[in-house]
C-alpha cells in the first residue's frame, strides 16, 4: 500500500469545497483508495511494521485530476490559430483539412498525439473524452498513445457518411457502420491482455454531428449503442446558429429530435455545447440522462449570439462537465475553461438583471467552487465514472499535487504571491481560490492516474 499524508481538497458535490487537513490516504496496488482518515486518528501511522509514508509538504495539497469532456485530438495540430470564421465555414477551411492530413500521415499523427498527451499531463488532465478522425487505424494510434502515457482516455472514431468536404467522408453508410464496429472491437483489444484496472482507454461511438450523418447512419449507430450497454456516445448538439439553421433546413427538425429519434440520447451520451437548447430541451436531456460538455471558450467564437444556459441546466438536473474543445477553443488547460465558465455566467447574470430592470432574483452565475466541481467531479459523473473525481474509499486515485508555497524560501510558486505567510501554512478556501484564479502549470508537481505517477 502507498500512503500519502498531507492536505487534500476536492468538490464532492456542486458548490461544496472540502479541505481535509493533515489526512492519511492509502492506495492499494491496483490504484484504488482503501483508506482515508485524519492523521490524528489513522491506524496506518501506528501500524507494525510501519508503512512507508509519502508526505505532501505544507503549502502543497492533493486535488483530483481534471476531466476534459470535449477535445478534438487531430485539431491540436493547429491549436491557437484559425478562429476567424463561423462554425460551418471554419470546419471546411481548417478542421476537415487538418483531420484529413492526420489520417494521411501516421508519423505526423504520432507526433501530434504524443505532444497532446504531454500537454494534458502538464495541465493536470488525467481523463479526457476525445474526438478523433474517420480512419480507424489513426484512432487506434491515438488510443495507443493515450494508454502509453497513462491517461484515462475515451476515444471516438468519427462516423461521417456525409460531408461538405467531399474528400473527407466515409464511402457510405454501411461502410461507416462497419468501421465503427471494427474500431470498437480493435480498441478494446488493445488493452484486453491488461488487468481491468490498467485498461485506461475505451472506444466511444462518435457521430460528428447531424450535418455529417444521414438518418440511416444515426439509426444504425443507435442500434449499435443498444446492443452494447457499456458503450459511450458523444456528439455535438445545438452549437451555433449557422449549424442549427443548417439542420432545420436540411432535416426539417431540431437536431435534438434527430438524435432522440435515433436513440442516441442516453445516460451514456455526452453532447458538446448545447448553447441553443430551450428549457424543455434541457429537461429532456435530464430525462434521458444525457450529459453536456460545456465549452465556454469555443462558445465565445462559434456561439456568440447565445451563451450556454449553464445555471438552468444545473437547476434542471443535467449532468455537466467542462471541455476545452481544441481547436475551437485555443487552450488545452481546463483551468481556463473553469475561469471562462464563471465569466460567461456572470455576464449572463448581468444581462438578465438589466433586462428585468433590476428586479430579478433569478441566479444565473456560478462561482469558482462550482466551476472546480465541473472541472473535476462533474466531468467524471458525466462519463459515468462514479468512483472518480473525488477522494473516497473505493475511488480511483486520480490526483494532482499542487504546490502553492515553496517550503524553503517561503515564497509563492509561479504567479502566486503571498504576503502574510505564517510559520505554519494552513490550507484555506481563500488560498485555494487564489490558486484557482491565477495559478498555472508551474504549480503542478505530480500527476497520478489509477495510482500510477504519470507526470
TrEMBL record:
Coiled coil spans: none
InterPro entries: Amidohydro-rel (IPR006680), Metal-dep_hydrolase_composite (IPR011059), Metal_Hydrolase (IPR032466), Metallo-dep_hydrolases (IPR051607)
Top-level division of the source organism's lineage: Eukaryota
Biological-process GO terms, alphabetical: guanine metabolic process
Record's GO cellular component terms: cytosol
GO molecular function: guanine deaminase activity; zinc ion binding
Keyword check for Metal-binding: yes
All residue ranges annotated as the Amidohydrolase-related domain in the record: 61-425
Cofactor: Zn(2+)
UniProt keyword annotations, A-Z: Hydrolase, Metal-binding, Zinc
Name assigned to this protein: Amidohydrolase-related domain-containing protein
Organism this protein belongs to: Pterulicium gracile
